[in-house]
Structure formats: C-alpha cells, structure tokens
Specification:
It is a single chain. By secondary structure, this protein is mostly helical. It has one domain. Helix 2 packs antiparallel against helix 8, helix 3 runs antiparallel to helix 4 and helix 3 crosses helix 6.
Length: 246
C-alpha cells in the first residue's frame, strides 16, 4: 500500500493518471447534476410547512456538507505535506481551499435566503450559523497565509498548522444543534435510524450530494494539475511534455 501511495505522490504519475480520470468523472458529475436538479426542481413535491422554499435546501445541504468535508480533506492533505514533506499533498491542500471557501459561502447565502421566510430573518447568531461563519474565516486565513509567504514550503507549513488547529471547529458545526438549543433544524438524513424526510424528497437530495462530491473530486484534480504544472515548470518531465505537445 505504501508503495502505491509513494507512486501516486509522484508529480508525473499523478498528472498522467489524473488526466485519465478527469473526462469520465466530469461526465458522471454532469449527469448527476442534471438528474438531481430535475428531481429537486420539478419532480419532488413542495414541503407541507416550507412550501416551495424547501427547494433551496437541495443546494444548501450539499454545499454545507461539502464545506466541512473540504476542510477535513484540506487539513489531512496539509498534515501529510507537513509530516512527510510530500510536495503533492501541499498542492492538493492548496487546490482544495478555494473550493471549500466557495461551498461555505454558498451554504451561508442559501441558508440566509431560506431563513428569511422560515425564521423571519436572514441571520441570527445561532451556534450552527456562527461556527459555519468561523469556517469561512479559517478558509480565508489558510489562503491568506499561502499567498502572503513567498516561499511555498514555509507557506505550506504555516497554513497546515492553521488547518489542523481549525479542525476543532468541524465537530462544533456538526453537533452544535445537539449540544445547544439552536434555531437551526437538527439532522434529517445523517442521523441514526430512518431519515425524517420523505423518500420523494430524499432521493433528489442524495443525488445532489453525490453530484457535489463528484464535482469536488473533479475540480480538485483539475486545480491540482494546473498548480502542479506551474510549480514543476522547470522540471525535465514538464519540459519534455511541452516539447512533445508543440
């Protein structure tokens, strides 16, 4: 297994294998988004309490889940780069950060839009909302450190430490609705037992979650390849590849 990990961590091998993965992954992502959006916007019924406003949740819930998943993935890859000094791990962590930041912004905006008709306000200093806002600041801090420090290795180390410290915020976001009396509704599909959501609404939501996850994998590979080529632009394998393509 370690042999495979070290092989996959090779910049040239990663670039070649990711190039083969991207096209089919892109088509799968597109198909999932089409099916999920059709189901969410046209086939699923309006909620008996929320009405048509429930359709915002097909965008909000996957984005909120991905905002946390992206951070965990970013922190893990940053830790791998920090501990084992694997250059590719630093690149992947850097590639993930803007994606996670974008998903957090989408989650906050769609949550506010949904909250106005449901709660009567766009924003409250609820434990879930506040911790999600802190997550956005953690992403911004990670990106700021990466861009402020000129040496890429030093920037990767500093941002990795920040990412690891910020991991404490993830369980706070996840379990805040259970730990405190919050305005935000509790879990509906990730809790133990039967989900408290009708099957006609559940299947489009699950497909949208899968679509977001596939998109995350696709765009991470895409961004990682671009950053890898930039950082390795003076290496022999990149020069050879450019020469063969021209």
């Amino acid at each position: 297994m370690w042999k495979f990990i070290h092989k996959f961590a090779s910049p040239k091998y990663f670039y070649n294998i990711s190039g083969k993965i991207l096209p089919p992954l892109g088509w799968v992502t597109l198909a999932l988004f089409i099916v999920g959006l059709v189901g969410a916007l046209f086939l699923s019924p309006p909620d008996y309490q929320q009405g048509e406003s429930v359709r915002i949740l097909y965008i909000h819930v996957p984005a909120a889940m991905l905002s946390m998943s992206c951070y965990v993935a970013m922190a893990i890859t940053a830790a791998i780069g920090l501990i084992w000094r694997i250059k590719l791990a630093d690149i992947v962590a850097w590639a993930i950060a803007p994606i996670g930041m974008t998903m957090t912004i989408i989650a906050l905006i769609t949550g506010s839009v949904w909250g106005k008709p449901m709660w009567g306000t766009y924003w409250v200093w609820d434990a879930r909302l506040t911790s999600e806002l802190i997550l956005l600041f953690l992403y911004l801090g990670f990106i700021a450190l990466q861009t402020a420090i000129e040496d890429t290795r030093s920037a990767a180390r500093a941002s990795a430490i920040l990412a690891l410290v910020g991991l404490v915020n993830i369980p706070i976001i996840k379990y805040s609705v259970n730990w405190w009396n919050t305005l935000h509704q509790p879990a509906t599909i990730s809790k133990m037992g039967k989900p408290s959501i009708d099957a006609s609404m559940l299947w489009p939501l699950l497909i949208m979650i899968a679509a977001y996850m596939c998109y995350f994998a696709w765009i991470t590979l895409k961004r990682s390849r671009c950053e890898l080529i930039y950082r390795e632009r003076n290496s022999s394998w990149v020069k050879k590849m450019v020469k063969e393509a021209s």
